[in-house]
């Protein structure tokens, strides 16, 4: 099968062949080429390595002066057709372009790039065609090596494929077949015109994610989540490795990174390097963009009078929507001969920098012609006209995904704004509380001091006693608020505390409050001392809240029983009051809950007590019936 390009008056000729089996001599008439001087043969082999080896050696037997490179593929471009499991042979004959070939198989990918560039580049080099293996090479480091030698020369080509197996790929340079490394050809000329361009039809969708642990092209963590688990979450365990890449932007170029290998530790290897901190989003194929004729959108290709196209397209494009990809490829052959292959990654040069691309269609247009520029736009394919309904359906689905993604992004932004507003409001609220608590202490202290001074000079007064009781209640609330505001910012050290003395001191403090409420504290203890290792501020919150609650809810003229017992390596502190039965004991420690709505308070005290007890491993027990209610707290003896 032969595609022949021999346009009258043009300097460059290209012959394209499709080989399946049998003798190569039955397919190619080598006699028409044997007297040519500058012959470039590119072999795009979708078959086994033996075929690649056979084709290259047979060609060189008949055309010993030819420059020959080749690669295994994940599909081939043959004019307007896309093939698989076949071998495409592209023979380009130049009039005024000198060719050089070389290969490198250093273990260090960066050094591979330096070595092959140093062997290929001349002062007249207009283009480097490079094929690397697709399973061993760190292609990004390789391209950096090429760039370090000369950052001005356009490049093209890509990583070899093995029909989606990701097991073993092969490349060839002249008679040398390689399973690892890189092969290349330089096109050197004073008259050769080269135009390159690329088409990227994948769009990001969903949230932005961060690469949090990576080593070159092996990613361990995304958003601090194991890389494989990240994909399981968003795409399921059977996700397509190539069709849903990570998309990022670097130096003005939108790039994709597709998964090429999954490791036992849950990490993933990508077709190109990533860096810690890279912001990425999951990508999907944009059918609307895929359906656009590449000739119409690849503006760079309109700058020369094209005589040949070399096409290097990502394997994901062929596998994502084969019908649409075929339509796009077909446009090139209406202008000039076209050949190429579907790669595991594409090589491209942009603004003095070599780029490793994925999901892209990269195209090189060549010409030695001196004729005036003439590039007509192709007419639409008949297949495209026949499948308008199918195309519209795909286009609508793509639009639905895009619009849903935009709506989701807008909702996320609104939610983030609301969260920021809530955070700022909460921060302001906390700041107000801190200020209020700080400012409360001074006037309360002044009131208490003046009450004591007045009583020393003028004696006690029932009015001042009522004021003092009220101030002590405010002091208790102040202490609660102060603890709540400061608890996350202050360290509360522990000291040895005698529970007997401490309980007595707090009873003395609230005795006047109880007296006004017509109650009396009765304290009993079976031990003279009860030493615990505890923080005094936290202990005060436990005792004070229980004493004030007992005063608040005890019936008039009923005593409040306070007891401390030592038994079985523990201290049991209990407060018993004669009060109504607690109706919902399961809720009594909840924030803002109060049994009796008529009583003053915020319902924060017992919730605060519960949190402290949980922090300090203090056990709480509650008993309540029609006659009395008891709260008991179990402290460890000499706890350290």
From TrEMBL:
Top-level division of the source organism's lineage: Bacteria
Which of UniProt's keywords are assigned here?
ATP-binding, Cell membrane, Kinase, Membrane, Nucleotide-binding, Phosphoprotein, Transferase, Transmembrane, Transmembrane helix, Two-component regulatory system
As recorded in UniProt, its EC number(s) are 2.7.13.3
GO MF annotations, alphabetized? ATP binding; phosphorelay sensor kinase activity
Q: Which Pfam families match?
A: FIST (PF08495), FIST_C (PF10442), HATPase_c (PF02518), HisKA (PF00512)
Name all Histidine kinase domain ranges: 435-639
Q: Please give the chief subcellular localization of this protein.
A: membrane
GO cellular component terms, semicolon-separated: plasma membrane
Q: Where in the cell is it found?
A: Cell membrane
State the membrane topology. Multi-pass membrane protein
Q: PROSITE patterns from the xrefs?
A: HIS_KIN
* Designated name of the protein: histidine kinase
What lineage does UniProt assign to this protein's organism? Bacteria, Pseudomonadati, Campylobacterota, Epsilonproteobacteria, Campylobacterales
